[in-house]
Amino acid sequence: MGPSATVPSELVFLDIGMPGMDGYEVAVVAPQHNWKRTRACFAALTGLGSDGDRRATAAAGFNHHLVKPLSEGLEEFVRLQGGGVVVG
User: Fold this and answer.
1) How far is CA 69 from CA 15, 30, 43, 47, in A?
2) Does residue 88 lie within any of the structural domains?
3) Can you tell me the distance from the alpha carbon of 71 to that of 10, in angstroms, rounded to the nearest whole number?
4) Which domain holds residue 60?
5) What is the enclosing helix (H) or strand (E) of 41?
6) pLDDT of residue 3
7) CATH number of the domain that 10 lies in?
8) Phi and psi (nearest 5°) for 11?
9) Cis peptide before 8 (omega within 30 of 0)
10) Which of 46, 62, 76, 80 could hold 16 in an S-S bridge, CB 3.0 to 4.6 Å?
11) How many CA atoms lie within 13 A of 30 on its CB side?
12) Helix intervals (H) in the chain
């Protein structure tokens, strides 16, 4: 885990299909770093959107399953979580 592991976050987007440590692996490691003891919301990002894919992310501890590509819906999602949108 890199420096971001020490930064408190309220909303964490994890890409499921990244090489190296993918989103599922981070979801397993996160409790060991006390991430889930905060009120952080974990959102899985993936190109896969079947019911089975959604069950897998839920079982891994994700709060949300978002299917790429994301567009304007992302801003609305973040606002619904009570946060502002930071672009860039």
Assistant:
1) 12, 25, 14, 7
2) no
3) 21
4) 3-73
5) strand 41-46
6) 43
7) 3.40.50.2300
8) -135, 120
9) no
10) 46
11) 26
12) 23-29, 51-59, 72-80
Quick check: 55 and 34 in contact, CB under 8 A? no
Instruction: Give the model confidence (pLDDT) of 27-77 as tens digits.
Output: 777 766 665 555 678 888 888 989 999 999 999 888 888 888 877 567 777
What is the reported pTM?
A: 0.68
Quote the tokens at residue 77: 């999602």
**Structure token digits, residue 72:** 């304007």
Residue 21: inside a domain: yes
Number of domains observed in the structure of the chain: 1
40 part of a folded domain: yes
* Cα–Cα nearest to 17, from 53, 51, 42, 52: 53
CA angle 39, 41, 46 (to 5 degrees): 165
Q: Is residue 80 part of a domain?
A: no
